[in-house]
Queue: 2 jobs
Job 1
Amino acid sequence: MGEGNVSPNPLVGCVVLDKNGNEISTGYHKKYGENHAERDALLKLGEKDAVGGTLVVNLEPCSHYGKTPPCADLIVERGLKKVVIAMRDVNPIVAGNGIKKLQNAGIEVVEGVLEKEAKELNEIFIKNMQEHKLFVSLKTATTLDGKIATKTGSSKWITSALAREKVMELRNAYDCVLTTSSTVLIDNPKFECKTKVLLDRELKCDFSMQYFKTGKIYVATTQKDLPKTPENVEIINISEENNKLNLQELFEKLYDLGLRSVFVEAGGTLNGQLIEQNLVDKIYQFVAPKIVGDNSAKSAYSGRDIEEISASKNYTIQSVEMYEPDVLITLKSN
Ligand code: AOF
Ligand code: ZN
């Protein structure tokens, strides 16, 4: 429920049971800087209600003074008897210290319940903490033959209303949405989201376009001669590599600006480069039950030159969901 509002913090939810096992409170981390899930759930209760009870949470309770005091201390204070945790906190300042605090106070700790699901829920936080890198997701909407537009660029619409609504929800879960000048020049998308990143190597886009009207926008370019920009637009200078923006450098700069995850919505050229350079953590591929059947139509991933099928990039399917009449295949990199 905190999705879109807690970055760079993890998504955390919590349930409190009384000594008889009845649910008496729930809570979640709603917004960065505000109460953690456990504090949110426990503060709704009277002092005695949770005594002898169980607290169930998807991340190890914290042990540090950050924006708020340690959750582990509050759990001890409130007299809980048992804490059930899905995964340990990967933040090095917590990493097992929350569990130790609870155990030292005589609380029984059960670990690893729904651990796989918990790790999937907080895949962004885990990558950020362990690798100090931006989490990169790519979304595409294709026909059965993997096309995103005909040869003339006609693409509205490949997928239907339900799938497109789901895309809006996915965008919201990321810190920013990245696209390219070609996509903006062809589709003139609005992209209603807080932060946008535009790859515009030669600064071809005009700031008067619809795209620039809302949100904070970072424009990545290799141009040194910079135009005057509107207040919501900031230029990031990136170096060039074989006439292409250095994408790794771009992602490092976005991370340094405080962004922790990016949702890429672009065409086959950028998608192909990201795939080639192994920069994609996750793919959301919507597939419509349509066939273009034309070799010259535009592919979702292009630009690679391989001979053996064994040189393909391989992914693991995480889920397949229907958004009638389309499907969404969610994949993670191997
Ligand atoms: C929990 N429950 O709901 C959250 C946790 O800046 P702060 O004070 O909010 O601390 C952020 C760190 O606390 C974060 O990196 C992670 O280790 C932990 N977040 N822990 O038990 C929560 N949001
Ligand atoms: Zn906490």
Job 2
Amino acid sequence: MPSPFVKIQDQDNQSQDLIIVPPSSGIALTGTIAIPGDKSISHRALMLGAIAEGTTIIQGLLLGEDPLSTARCFRAMGAKISQLNTEKVVVKGVGLGNLKEPSYVLNAGNSGTTMRLMLGLLASHPGKFFAVTGDKSLRSRPMSRVVEPLTQMGATIWGRENNSLAPLAVRGQKLKAIHYLSPVASAQVKSCVLLAGLMTEGKTTVTEPALSRDHSERMLQAFGAELEINPKTNSVTITGQPTLKGQTVIVPGDISSAAFWLVAAAIVPGSELLITNVGINPTRTGVLEALAMMEADIVQENERVVAGEPVADLRVKHSQLKACTIGGEIIPRLIDEVPILAVAAAFAEGTTVIKDAQELRVKESDRLAVMATELGKMGAQITELPDGLEITGGATLTGADLDSFTDHRIAMSLAIAALNAQGSTTIHRAEAASISYPNFVDTLKAAISE
Ligand code: S3P
């Protein structure tokens, strides 16, 4: 049902304001929400489909801007990818090692996953030349974290700032297997090295300081690659030059998108939501553990396994949240949910500390700085720490003039905060939400019960 409390206003051809004006009686959220497909799994399904032999069928693909960037890049390198839709995408792969040299620059848009994973594949295509770029945000994000291991494997990559910033130029090489000790717990780094290892003779190993999401490992195995996983040391080894065979991939809903509704219903009085078909892979469920520590009322129902990934429906009801401390090994498992957890903390009793989260400074925006400034404008008691945030909950938030900094997760986190604020909030450049959640605003309107 259309809501009079949530409006979109076009600023110019590209930019939109999201205006949220909760009535003084408050806005409750009720009903059932089906969230869009998982972004990480969508990228990987398109990429592995593109390099495998035969046909891959993808059901439930995320139609956000980021997977569109992946599809555009791999089409330019010869993969046949049908029109993108959520029902059934058909990918006809080129076979391992057969990506075509594109005659133009590959553009990863806003997507770090597209660029970093793709670089592993490009660097390992001997004799071929590739140029890759992205939007303004992506061109400022560190690529050294993947250029470094790829260079150790023998890759040739050039770019600005000592080969660390896109645009990057890649001359594909026959790479050598290495054991890479990654200084960061990053699934993008791990996946980049594993994808480079696909084309490389022998065994390539990545060890990370804490476990990051393992969708690449699961999907590579499903497509026929040989992996050894050592959970004690957070190491993964891939044996090079397998035959990858096209598969059917059923993409579960994205827990990172579900997180907005989990927090919305938890903080807005009178709310109860059922969020269906949520991927609950343990490398992604840090947000559920953090919200449990905050005493949120969330119940997992109908747990099942769909195409190798665990899935459940989540029922969430409003409750008074309590502060907690979030840090250490849980951080990589809730890395994208820190902005929305900061919103939860602003409505919790006591002081929440989020630490060990310095990685947030190199996401689509500096998410620590942006959340501190923007929630601060609403009157939240929030302090930026070098590696996190300290938030004392309980202050009444007031509507304010805010900016997404073109970061999708910031736009959506601020929208949820605005639901529980007094007065009108405007979020500039809110169209950024479509990077990972194209119908976020429509879903929000439909969930508001009057
Ligand atoms: C992703 C990994 C994470 C995450 C990003 C998606 C992936 O990034 O923040 O949204 O699909 O591999 P890092 O690997 O940089 O932590």
